[in-house]
Amino acid sequence: MDGNDDLPSGSMRSAVDISKNWKHVLIACLISPAVEAQVDGFNKGAGNMDVVTSFSYQKGLDYYLADGNAGIERNQQAVTLFAARGITGELDLQLSVPFIWNSTEADFQDASAFLKWLPVNTGIGKGRLALGPALGYSLPLTDYQTEGVNAIGQQATGVIPMGVVQYTWDNGWFASLVGGEVFASDPTPDALIGTLRFGHFNSTHFWEIYAQGQKADGGKNYRGTGDLAPTSFKELGVDFLKVGGKYYKLVCPRIGIVAEANYVLSGRNVDQAVMGALSAVIHFGK
Q1: Beta strands in 188-269 (DSSP E)
Q2: Taking CA atoms, which of 16, 28, 115, 157 is between 20 and 30 Å from 35?
Q3: In-domain check, residue 4
Q4: How many Å apart are CA 181 and CA 193, to the nearest integer?
Q5: Residue range(s) defining the domain that contains residue 33
Q6: Burial class (CB in 10 A: 0-12, 13-18, 19+), 1
Q7: Nearest-angstrom CA–CA distance, 277 and 60
Q8: Is residue 124 one of the residues assigned to a domain?
Q9: If we measure between CA atoms, which residue out of 15, 26, 22, 1 comes closest to residue 129?
Q10: Strand runs (DSSP E) across the chain, as ranges?
Q11: Is residue 270 part of a domain?
Q12: What is the dihedral of CA 135, 173, 49, 250, to 10 degrees?
């Protein structure tokens, strides 16, 4: 979906054109430890850019330990500024900056940048297959709180190589798989990450459902004992499985809104939480 002349005509071309407004706005309304949500199988197209402002609210219901629950309920809010620009027809640059607050803390958290290259975008059957790599980098913007119940994050710098595969049918249905690894700075453990998406779009809207997971390579445990007892929350290994969905609606030619919700089904050293978010999207370019 890179604007090439061999794209289908008619209703699918209309869907392709409108996709430039939503196809990279999804992470801005997903405040999550899983950075792979920033990457999908669509290209922006050279010269196109989306700027997104998002507000999210996460309601903690419990806290998953390595064995059982902790009975901790934490609430968190965030405002995120997100931008994605097509450098060429195959290469996109994405930037994200979140500001997070809770009952006692408020600060900028971890900024991230991704380059995504999809050199394969070819017609197969009744649709198109997109395939390629992505490389991300994240770093903490401030000396935010990492310890205690109201910790904002783990103050880790990360290098994030990933792979992307997506199939988009001519009628606007799509399915994608994104996966890779976060190579985090010590003492935060590395982690495998992945997201499976399924959805549909047309000339006025977009929706998707997704399952997203993270599996840390070891790490200490909150309330762990012996060798698994942390001296800092930076050492915690974070695992989770969450499910969610989002809906995008075009409200005028260059502005849209996104609503999203997700729920953490299981995990380790992570909140059992439900999250809701609203985002405003402005599209610049063709």
Answers
A1: 191-201, 205-216, 239-252, 255-268
A2: 16
A3: no
A4: 6
A5: 11-284
A6: buried
A7: 15
A8: yes
A9: 1
A10: 49-64, 75-86, 91-101, 106-108, 110-117, 120-124, 127-140, 158-169, 173-184, 191-201, 205-216, 239-252, 255-268, 270-284
A11: yes
A12: -140
Q: Residue 2: inside a domain, yes or no?
A: no
Query: From residue 59, how far is each of 67, 68, 69, 77, 273 by CA, in Å?
Result: 22, 19, 16, 9, 5
| C-alpha span between 115 and 162 (Å, rounded) | 10
For the chain (length 286 residues), average pLDDT per consecutive 10?
Answer: 34 38 38 54 90 95 96 95 94 94 96 95 95 96 94 95 96 95 97 95 90 96 95 96 94 92 97 96 89
pTM over 0.90: no
How many domains in the chain?
1
What are the tokens at 77?
């809010």
**CATH number of the domain enclosing 145:** 2.40.160.40
